[in-house]
Amino acid sequence: xxxxASDAEEWSRALDDDPSAFSRVFARHRxxxxxxxxxxxxxxxxxxxxxxxxxxxxxxxxxxxxxxxGSMLPWLLIxxxxxxxxxxxxxxxYRQLLDGLPxxxxxxxxxxxxxxxxxxLRSLSLSDQxxxxxxxxxxxxxxxxxxxxxVPRGTVKSRLSRAKRRLADGVHQSRHTHQVPVSELSQ
Length: 187
Prior knowledge:
Arc Repressor Mutant, subunit A, two-stranded antiparallel sheet
């Protein structure tokens, strides 16, 4: 019988000086953390940096990580949200230099990113981004999100309702303010 160790078990082994256990946790979650980071960082290329920082922070905070049903993925996703926010802040310092350049469509290796939804997600407050990440994008329950965020379930429920409304409003507003008439596309 093959038993795949939980993140909590692997993490315990890593804390007991088993570097391969950390490697297994990294391999298990790096792709999910990357996909989540792509949604939030200023450029797709920044997602790799975000993943590296997230796992560095995991090791730095190794004694205080919260697990949900033996998984550290919720903690990693919240940390990725925080890292992405910091990367966006850093990038904003350079935006003034780039303001004069024409803006093109934003593409990833996988295809076109929904720019309106991405912009709306980035415009949310950090607490709203966290709750949207866990409950909407990653489909964790409100109870699990409350546990990883260290807040009551009712707080998650109210934040989620507010964040969904703000996200929808942001997408709606973006789609209506950025429409280009067809006649301008051929010029």
